[in-house]
Amino acid sequence: MRKIALLTSGGDAPGMNACIRAIVLTSLRYGLEVYGYRHGFNGLLEQEYLNLRAKNVANIIQRGGTILNSARCLTFKSDDAAKVAAKNLDILGIEALLVIGGDGSFRGAKHLANHWSGQVIGLPGTIDNDVDGTDATIGYYTAIETALDSIDKVRDTADAFERIFLIEVMGRHAGFIGLNAAIASAADHIMLPEISRSCDDELENILAHIEAVKKRRGNTSYIVVVTENLWPDGVTSLAQILTEKTQIECRPVILGYVQRGGSPVSQDRVLATKLGAFAVEAALEGKTGVMVGEINQEIVCTELENSWLQKKPLDPYLVKIQQDLFDILKRP
Ligand SMILES: Nc1ncnc2c1ncn2[C@@H]1O[C@H](COP(=O)(O)OP(=O)(O)OP(=O)(O)O)[C@@H](O)[C@H]1O
Ligand SMILES: O=P(O)(O)OC[C@H]1O[C@](O)(CO)[C@@H](O)[C@@H]1O
């Protein structure tokens, strides 16, 4: 193999730059030329690429975002687009393409593989951690830290005013950030897609809990962590309902895109470096159609489809203890 390429796709995640760095340096160490396509799959269609050298990846390990830019390229779903991408990769003489992104990006990688004879390897990079075949995705740990830092700050003002706060975290349809940030911030309640019930049941449950906690602690702050896309019309509408029903001031906080930015924590940098180096070695061994991930501290390859076919479960023990802690909080 002489030429390898990479791209970042879907939502950017802290640690993507660390991963790009590891891929570039490992490729150079093995004597490969390495190319970075810009703006996700758009770069393949538009022939927007650059030859990456060691100097391009100096001083980027600590930076959030991605130096290659990212994108959601909806046109890439068509067969014609995949054929154009395949042709462009062949023109440049690329033999293996590494795709850093989430499950959508891996569907894109698989789609390309159906039309291209080169090797395709995925690396999990998304804050949502909703990718099977790896314990954690690159960016996930930083997103938890960012959410936690904000929730701690909200707790201060919530305490001062003895208010209820609903804090919406990202995750698309997965509760990994929500569960971990809630546990670490000692939130009083969580609403996650994996354990959600009907809106009526959720409301009844939360009102009963607030009432019980108030009886036990008197007027107090009360923090609820809610995963995005869960409550119809979002946390602002739920905050209005709770204010009316409890007669306690309830404020919504949508954490939003801050969770995607910032300098990656060490766990994300280390994971990104390990997976980046391993992906290049896997490419050199001829692997294709797989995603590299880490399970129980071992780096493993998973068929690309298996990264999305099953919904990755939350840690059931963490869910259990969070529920137990809620119950203890409301005991007299
Ligand atoms: N079925 C598909 N076929 C071809 N390409 C796809 C397919 N699904 C997704 N893609 C490509 O992958 C890109 C990224 O997918 P998506 O927007 O789902 O983000 P993701 O990789 O899951 O990351 P995140 O969840 O962190 O945002 C899409 O914009 C598109 O270019
Ligand atoms: O940047 P966009 O396209 O608004 O996407 C937001 C989505 O991307 C993610 O941040 C994942 O990257 C999700 O948590 C969120 O639902």
From TrEMBL:
InterPro entries: ATP_PFK, ATP_PFK_prok-type, Phosphofructokinase_dom, PKF_sf. Pathway: Carbohydrate degradation; glycolysis; D-glyceraldehyde 3-phosphate and glycerone phosphate from D-glucose: step 3/4. Its EC number is 2.7.1.11. Keywords: ATP-binding, Cytoplasm, Glycolysis, Kinase, Magnesium, Metal-binding, Nucleotide-binding, Transferase. Its cofactor is Mg(2+). It is found in: Cytoplasm. Gene3D superfamilies: 3.40.50.450, Phosphofructokinase domain (3.40.50.460). One of its GO terms (molecular function) is ATP binding. Residues 3-282 form the Phosphofructokinase domain. Pfam families: PFK. The keyword Glycoprotein does not apply. GO terms for biological process: canonical glycolysis; fructose 1,6-bisphosphate metabolic process; fructose 6-phosphate metabolic process. It catalyses: beta-D-fructose 6-phosphate + ATP = beta-D-fructose 1,6-bisphosphate + ADP + H(+). It is an enzyme of class 2 (transferase). GO terms for cellular component: 6-phosphofructokinase complex. PANTHER family: ATP-DEPENDENT 6-PHOSPHOFRUCTOKINASE (PTHR13697:SF4), PHOSPHOFRUCTOKINASE (PTHR13697). Belongs to the phosphofructokinase type A (PFKA) family. This is 6-phosphofructokinase. It comes from Aliiglaciecola lipolytica E3.
